[in-house]
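Sample intake sheet
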Amino acid sequence: MTQTDVALIETDRPREDDTDTTQLRIIPLGGLGGIGKNMMLLESGENLLIVDAGLMFPDSDMHGVDVVIPESEYLLDRLDWIRGIVLTHGHEDHIGALPYLIDQGLDAPVYATALTKGLLQGKLSEHGLLAQTELHTVTESDVIDLEPFNVEFFHTCHSFPDSVGVCVSTPAGRVILTSDYKFDDTPVDGKLTEVDKLERWGDEGVLLLLGDSTNIEAEGSTPSETKVEETLDGIFSQVDGRVILATFASNVSRVQQIITISRKHGRRVGMIGRSMINNVKIAISLGYLDIRQDELLTAKEMEELPSHQVTIIATGSQGEPTSAMVRMSIGDQRQISLRKGDTVVLSATPIPGNEELFNRTIDNLYRRGARVFYHELSDDVHVSGHGGKEDYRRMLELVRPRYFIPVHGAYRHLVLHGELAEEVGIEPENVFVVEDGQVVEFGHFVDETDEIEARLGEHVSANHVFVDGLGVGDIGSVVLRDRRHLGSDGFLVCIVALDEFDGSILYGPEIISRGFVYIRDNEGLIMRAEEIVRNEVKGKATPSVLSRRVRNALASFCSNEMGRRPMILPVVIQV
């Protein structure tokens, strides 16, 4: 059901004549209509199951925001309904919001595979929340009973070695959530996506599939991870200097590939970047990396060993401003300095919207004299952990669901995935293309049939919650609008003190400018602005009235004189 207008009309219809026996509600709080912040709720009666709780990184217009997390109001109003939190894998867009939500009051047992659990424990420790969180380790072979939900798992190939999809038996029927996946015949860890389980569930009957849509625009299937290994091996073969590679800190499989290739070429490996170092320590302790902690290079060894013996793995594959790679590119990394002869490999493709930071980092690396390999010069320095269109087609054909909801993607991705579902035979009215907050209900809604049916429910609040420093949710659209205003036009502060009896000026007006004009070079302009303020504060009036006059007069002056609209902050005091 892709016609949004029709969907909204249906949602608003009164239902007094329904024999409403809703057995399941699907409630997306994140990941539908945007990249990241993945969070899905399954609700049956007064029971809730949460699958994933991820964050997203801010868009370029979210000035000063560190990360964005899902809104938790719906959950916090129903804490005693929550039966459990199931995590599919340890990427930030699937687990990163959980510490913030737990700090807000979310309290339920958490189920995760070993590496995902290990990474989450590190995050919870940093937030001081580990002791109060109930954590359970699961494998793809486990079945957990969270009445009325029965949860099974299936291993998936992804850029995280411990990834699983989830199959949930609910009162309405079987629901499969793929999470992130691809069908890779030669994965790094040798573990294939569990097709046999998917086929069996498809044969037994699947009510609903919620399928990852991230890579729907990519024709064909996603290449195997072995392509990356072959490409990296070729790069190592042709260089004599240090090789410095940037990848996601949670891409443990890629880290293992780099370790294996480095050994082959007589190199030792070191890590730079706090999250990379922490994740590698956890992965080593849990047996996910074939290297001992004492084999890793120290920062001193990375600088002093012969260059042909050194490989460095760093954070910063997306050009994140505070990451190790970006700091190296601008000469601001205290431990490692780039030098001529270094080869840098950015083993990632930029997340949509992040291209500017990514490209700026490449330019700065070249300025440092490094030789740089990235996706546009060498396609196979990175392959996606998400399947392409043919992978998604195969999933639909294996599972053969009655209903389908595309998830994890921008709106166009959801629409295109919905069209693919129709191509493979799912009835168009059984495809629901929805965004965050739109509830989809399953149950017996008509007397004449015993068959489970689906319909659109109400909207629940699923807004962005901004995290800025220690503040969670205290930044809203008004503050972001002000920050954009400040970033584009700067501000003026005008201070003037008046005698409360006769209105005469006792101090000022003093005008302070930041981001509007440089005062020393524009003294004439500032003097004219001060004269305008003197004229506006003549006569008896309240400070609020005088402040409004000053603001309006200065706004007109700045627009007429400079064609700019700075934020104006008048401070009028009567003493």
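Comment: The CA atoms of residues 12 and 458 lie 8 Å apart. The chain has a mean pLDDT of 87.
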